[in-house]
Amino acid sequence: MQSSSPFFLSTQTRSAWGLILPSLALFLAVVIIPLIMTVMLSFHDWGQYKGIETVFILKNWYEIWSDSYFHEMFARTFRIAVIVTFITMALGAPEAYILNRMRAPWKGVFLLVILGPLLISVVARTLGWALLFGGKNGVVNMALMKIGVIDAPLPFMFTETGVVIALSHVMMPFMVLSIWAALQKLDPQIENAALSLGASQLTVMRRIIFPQIMPGLLSGGIIVFSLAASAFATPAIIGGRRLKVAATLAYDEFLNTLNWPLGAAVAVLLLVALVIIVVSSNALIERRYKAVFE
Amino acid sequence: MAFLELQNVTKTFGDHTAVNAINLTVQKGEFVSLLGPSGCGKTTTLQMIAGFVPLTEGIIRLDGRDLSNVKPAERGLGIVFQSYALFPHMTAAQNVAFGLEMRSIPRSDRDQRVRDALALVGLAGYEERFPRRMSGGQQQRVALARALVIRPQILLLDEPLSNLDAKLREEMQIELRQIQRNLGTTTILVTHDQHEAMALSDRIVVMNKGVIEQIGSPQDTYQSPASAFVASFLGKTNAFEGEVQASRDGISRILVGEYIYNTAVHIKGAVIISIRPERVSFAATGLRGTVRTRIFQGNHWLFQIETSAGIATVIRQNDGTSMPEEGHDVHLAWREEDTFVRTNGKVG
What is the pLDDT along chain A (294 residues), one digit of tens a residue? Predict the structure, then answer.
């Protein structure tokens, strides 16, 4: 007999809770609780000799707010993320379009070429750039100097340009995939339809193809932006300690300065800023491209 | 002079010949259907006329002008695709206006023509709808309006009705025919549906394996098929094996099963005699057979009759007279002018 009492959960509801309980517990233990602890930590005090004091003060937050050093760090982080997003968009859109128009064997081959890097660790990929352009011993630098194109090594390591180039390379597959998914939804005859109505190839791109891949371009943009802004490995290797971004800054506060509360404040600020940017731009996109998304 | 002329048009993909040296002329204002099974080359032919696929050999002329070096955008043809290929990010009105924008028609004129085109296809008031918010039939109408609004020299229809359900398809056929007649637009329809081709066209071009089997009016192609393929593709047909003999007094006689009658055909030996099911009648004498199945289809009866020359299909109008029942013995008769006799290639 089935209980209909309002005080007892039905068997179905009980088993549903039972099923999600393990993942819920895991989520709480490794995401929610550490997050809350990090937020709490950002309000604690720290001193060179006294260590962490569990008090509630706004010292760390005030320091980030008032010190131009931190402003520079955050400005650089988001500047890099924005530039990387635009570079991957500009290069990824034509790349995905060409990929989509390829014939059977080549399409698969080049899709693998594009996605292949995802199978290699970010560290390995970034170290590749360091090998090519790392000061006087970089392979490309050596070759260029030998044939006399340049006198001094190209400034790549510890420069913002270097970080932007390496990050764009690392993020490219996410953008291409996202645009490619949007291209898949295109009617294969739609270009012919526009051509037959008198449109030039350029007009077809601008008026027909581009608006339809816009959602893919923008969702790819959100992915790349948030990954680039929170990237650690690539800025750490290319930028090092000389060119810090928010993620490497937090890392340094935790592990070098040992000022955990300040590091926590940096990390929390980065997270909050990213969430606000991503959520609001997502809402904006959905409203703007309602017709295409439906 | 012919308005559209296809001369020796050939298309090969690798070592596969999709269209093999076809010749076709279309007069101004004519409605011509390219009819054939999938893979017969009809869509490739349409795409060559549209300019999406280059010719391997041959020449296409429109109003006397060689189209070889004319881009699709400059041909001025209106095309309705099987998938409609509407621009999903534009409203119905924006879709229809696109071709006019490309032609730099002034705004006020453009708006008027868009409204007229949508009204023509029965979609007045749907201007601001997005394609996704429209039914298949409505999307189809937008696609038609978009193709017609540019006042195309030729309207090309690539299986435009195949995605609609049977009832809607029939309605659209009638409407399409009316619109085409009123505007007088030269139209080429690609279809695999013989009913659609017969209902709409002035002439039907029956294609098979890249070649044209027959060109003729719907009545001609149905009643006097030029080949066995045309006979079997256009409607149902009976194919009896028989034999033509010349008798002593100089009159040819034809044998079908045990049924013998005089004939005017000149070939001799083993033959195949094709007859439409609706041209076979029950009579007192003729080819003997037994009714195996009898199916009532409202306005007509459909019979399967076992004879010594093979299974025969017979269609009889439901005119109120009594029909033979299953298991009954009958005699099948037909008029000689309703038959199509050809040599039976089969040895033995």
Answer: 444 555 566 788 888 888 999 999 999 999 999 999 999 999 998 888 888 888 888 999 999 999 999 999 999 999 999 999 999 999 999 999 999 988 888 988 998 888 888 888 889 989 998 899 888 888 888 888 888 888 888 888 899 999 999 999 999 999 999 999 999 989 989 999 999 999 999 999 999 999 999 889 999 999 999 999 999 999 999 998 889 999 999 999 999 888 999 999 999 999 999 999 999 988 888 887 775 555
Contacts of B85 in chain A (CB under 8 A): 187, 189-190, 192-193
Q: Which fold has domain A68-293?
A: MetI-like fold (1.10.3720)
The answer to whether the CB atoms of A294 and B130 lie below 8 A apart is yes
Q: Could you confirm whether domain B238-343 is CATH 3.40.50.150?
A: no
- The tokens for A141 are 């630098």
Closest-CA distance of chain A to residue B67, Å: 14
Q: Note the ipTM here.
A: 0.80
Is residue A198 within 8 angstroms of chain B, CB to CB? yes
Each residue of B264-319: pLDDT tens digit?
777 788 888 888 899 998 988 888 999 999 999 889 999 999 998 888 999 999 88
**Residue that is written with structure tokens 């949508």 in the block:** B118
Rounded Cα distance between B136 and B168, Å, is 10
Alpha helix (H) residue ranges in chain A: 11-27, 33-41, 59-66, 68-101, 104-115, 122-133, 139-146, 160-184, 190-196, 201-203, 210-229, 233-234, 246-255, 260-288, 290-293
Displacement of CA B126 from its chain's centroid (Å): 32
Q: What are phi and psi of B70, to 5 degrees?
A: -100, 125
For residue B2, give the H/E element and its range: none
Q: Do A291 and B132 touch (CB under 8 A)?
A: yes
Confidence (pTM):
0.80
CB contacts, 8 Å: A291 with chain B: 88-89, 130, 132
Query: Considering only CA atoms, which of A45, A204, A78 is closest in space to residue B71?
Result: A204
Domain boundaries of chain B, sorted by first residue? 4-233, 238-343
Q: Is A192 on the interface with B (CB under 8 A)?
A: yes
**A193 with B102: Cβ contact below 8 A:** no
Cα–Cα distance, A245 to A140 (Å, whole number):
26
Pairing label, strands B78-80, B154-158: parallel
CA atoms within 13 A on the CB side of B230: 23
Q: Domain residues of chain A, as ranges?
A: 68-293
Spacing of C-alpha B219 from chain mean position: 12
Residue B163, min C-alpha distance to chain A (Å): 15
Nearest CA in chain B to A190: B85
Tell me if B72 and A194 make a contact (CB, 8 A cut-off).
no
The tokens describing A80, both together, are 């890099």
Closest CB from A196, A289, A291 relative to B50: A196
Domain B4-233 is classified in which CATH homologous superfamily?
Answer: P-loop containing nucleotide triphosphate hydrolases (3.40.50.300)
